[in-house]
Specification:
2 strands; Recoverin, domain 1; mainly alpha; two-stranded antiparallel sheet; about 190 residues
Amino acid sequence: MLTILFLLPIVVGVLSGNIPEQPRVYCGELPNTIYSCLGNPKIIQPEVSEKCNKPISECDKTRCIFKESGWAKNNVIDKKKVSDYFEQFAKDNPDWSAAVQNFKTTCLSDSLKPQGVDTNCPAYDIIHCALISFIKFASPSQWSTSEQCVYPRQYAGACPVCPERCFAPSVPNGSCNACLALLRTP
């Protein structure tokens, strides 16, 4: 009897159309505001980013970042140095601890697969994996509560974070990272 009394208002609400429908989330390219909605965490030192911001491939840019940060020598990545850097980042920014822990577990493992269209660029793979960790494992307090951040937050919870180049017309759907043939933003 109690079950019927509990379910009756829900059934009536559904039948009358009074229960608001959740907006549909379309997976594809990252929403433009997702970084600002997370407070633009600076995981790479600004002077390093500036030094490596050249008209070169994404792979070469991330190699430059690793070299300039002291995380790689002769394109060999020192995962201990990367781990130590991110551990210090978590100490300096405690709200990002969950993201950093996920990063260290997932992105610095030996089983990290290529993350984009470049199949032999471990620096890119690690940086992109860090991006995923910081988007997917941001604490609720990191997200802006502004209206423009509602959709990016829903996107982060529902969609894979794929490199932009995965959406180039020349790249077949489903061939990049977790970018399957998902619904795209209209």
